[in-house]
Amino acid sequence: MRELPLPVALTARLSPVVVLAAAGWALTSKPATPAGHHDAGQQTSATSPSAPSSPTGSSTKSYTAAPAPCGSVAVKTINALVPGAKTAGKEIQSTDAKLRRTCSWNALKGYDYRWLDVSFEVMQSDQAAQKEYTNRLAQKSGGGAVPGLGDSAYSVVNLTTQDKQQTREGVVIARASNVLVVTTYNGSNFETKKAPGTDEINTGAIKAARDAVTALQGGRAG
Question: Is residue 25 within 8 Å of residue 31, measured between CB atoms?
């Protein structure tokens, strides 16, 4: 199976932050941090570093197409994690919607900015998905396993600071059969220039990831 290009959402995530950073400048007279960048020296996680989780939530079904991502996260989860965001979300254009689909939610409420996105990436087989999952974990450090999420899952939280503005971002990578579910959640405050706490970001990312995996497996996110 051909190698999939990098998710369009990874690039697209920068655009709304730039726009909202402008709002932050108007509110605070100082620039805000673009999201999606990591400082390897400032990685933290709410879980202890460990090997990928055992398949306590194993799925036996193989998938031929990515599900509709904007319906994969429960409305109450979106309202809790991204206050003020349109719960319908916005699907990011993909080069192959059958194999990869991504939805994003973002909002600036007062001085607080939050971004959430969920991606489904369909691989040719469970083995291909496991290989890709392992490769991605090899690029991460400082995180930990998330038990009971798909066949295996891992979360990591990073803190970055640019122009004294902090941004904290959590990423959860989960494998369910031949699909990778990648959830990204980040936030900043343009008044205090502080980022949300590690636990808040890590817990939020894992909650959204659980909703997404449940939706993939044919359940109802809740």
Answer: yes
Q: How far is residue 204 from each of residues 187, 201, 214, measured CA to CA in Å?
A: 11, 5, 16
pLDDT in tens, 95-144: 898 899 999 999 999 999 999 999 999 999 999 999 999 999 998 878 99
**pTM surpassing 0.90?**
no
Cα angle 60-216-203, degrees, rounded to a multiple of 5: 110
User: What is the distance between the alpha carbons of residues 208 and 195, in angstroms, rounded to a whole number?
Assistant: 19
Are 2 and 10 in contact, with CB atoms under 8 Å apart? no
β-bridge partners, 203: none
Interval 138-153: pLDDT, tens: 988 789 999 999 999 9
What is the chain's alpha carbon radius of gyration, rounded to the nearest angstrom? 17
Distance CA 80, CA 219 (A): 21
Domain ranges for the chain: 8-216
